[in-house]
Specification:
Radius of gyration: 19 Å
Helix content: 55-70%
CATH superfamily: Winged helix-like DNA-binding domain superfamily/Winged helix DNA-binding domain
Strand order of the largest sheet: 1-2
Distance between the termini: 38 Å
Strand content: 5-15%
CATH topology: Arc Repressor Mutant, subunit A
Structural class: mainly alpha
CATH architecture: Orthogonal Bundle
Shape: elongated
Amino acid sequence: MELSCKSEYAILALLELAIHYQSGEPLQIRQIAAQQNIPDRYLEQLLATLRRGGLVKSLRGSKGGYLLSREPWKITIFEVLGCVEGLDKVQTYEEDAKPKTVDGDVVEEIWQEARQAANSVLQKYTLADLCEKRDSRRQLDIMYYI
């Protein structure tokens, strides 16, 4: 299981919005892109997907930009990946597609267990948790250099 570039960029963009959530001011695409080192055009497409998924809202005008649609502690990483990658669609095998074998059943059971474990971890963490981890790591970096 790997995190796609698309998902990583989406999480980073939302992390940036979560960091600025308390200010209540929208961030423009170029601000998010500069802070998180994400290509502008790609970020624009990702934010449109996240807006359609209900995770961000956009404001038009000269003072416009993007905001989280909910508090950072109410948006899970699982929800973000579901929006970007479509994880909410359960992958199932059609019974007629492949003949059932004991070996195939064993492999499928283990894969299902791994998927459930990964989903459990992703459902546990929110954007607020990522912000806290980020802040604590930055504190450690600062202390290390002193």
